[in-house]
């Protein structure tokens, strides 16, 4: 439901005496096929190559009601319920400039954890800490400080995958490609879970259904310097997304952010609306991802 550009680390709840008991749980069938078993593989390795890290924007938080940028030129006057044209996908923190993946990163590898929750963090700090924290965890030889998320079941991973699969049609158009992996060390996008977000800005602290964090880099610099790839991290709430339909919708929404739609739509029926009422991509969502991947880009992940 909520989008956080740039960093993410999640929370946990220990179940059993070893991490292995948590990681041993396989994901279930998705659309008649099997999701890769979620595990941590062998020895932890770096998530990217060498080189120097580039300057990046940290702590981007798209604020409710303030994160809908100016409309693309061909869509001026649009953005209300019933419109099918693209809305602005840009990142508010960098003057609404466009952010997406480079084609050389395809296929994007997605790892859906077996219900893992990362250590608690105040909601206001998630976007400024998560990516670096998760990257450090994956590079450390020590056991990961993760626990089992309350309310998680293996079926939830199917629901998450179903939401991600809503974007699959754009593979046929050559916009991007992705696949699921069983090893988080090589993944571009990681999915974790939480029951609720600590000290959330929303009333009661439980209304936020998801957060996506990433580190973005100016494309001009990314083309000159080898980036130490850090993963995009998604957290989904099992409490807020308490039905299969809600979890699927939240997953589709957060994966839209992970693909590069950083702002929220003003269209009531769009999956990327901050207070979405629909759990499925709208014509405007589809027009927006096409717009994003067909236009020149200023920032990359």
Describe the fold and architecture:
This protein is an alpha/beta fold and 301 residues long. It has one domain. Helix content is 22%, strand content 14%. It is built from six helices and 14 strands. The chain has helices at 19-23, 123-139, 154-165, 219-222, 244-259, 283-294, and strands at 4-5, 29-30, 33-34, 60-61, 99-100, 108-112, 116-117, 147-148, 178-180, 189-194, 210-213, 217-218, 232-237, 299-300. The strands form five sheets. Strands 9-6-10-13-11 form a five-stranded mixed β-sheet, with helices on both faces. Strands 5-14-12 form a three-stranded mixed β-sheet. Strands 1-4 form a two-stranded antiparallel sheet. Helix 3 crosses helix 5 (244-259). The longest helix is centred in the middle third of the chain and has 17 residues, at 123-139. The model is unreliable at 1-69 and 73-82 (pLDDT under 50).
Quick structural summary:
This protein is α/β, with parallel strands linked by helices. It has one domain.
**Strand runs, count:** 14
- Ranges where pLDDT stays below 50 over 5 or more residues in a row are 1-69, 73-82
Radius of gyration, in angstroms, nearest whole number: 18 Å
What distance lies between the first and last C-alpha atoms, to the nearest angstrom? 21 Å
**Strand residues, percent:** 5-15%
The outline comes out as globular
**Helical amount among residues, as a percent range?**
10-25%
Based on secondary structure, the structural category is alpha/beta
Number of domains: 1
Largest sheet: 5 strands, mixed
Number of helices: 6
Order of the strands making up the biggest sheet: 9-6-10-13-11
Order of helices and strands: EHEEEEEEHEHEEEEHEHHE
Mean pLDDT: 76
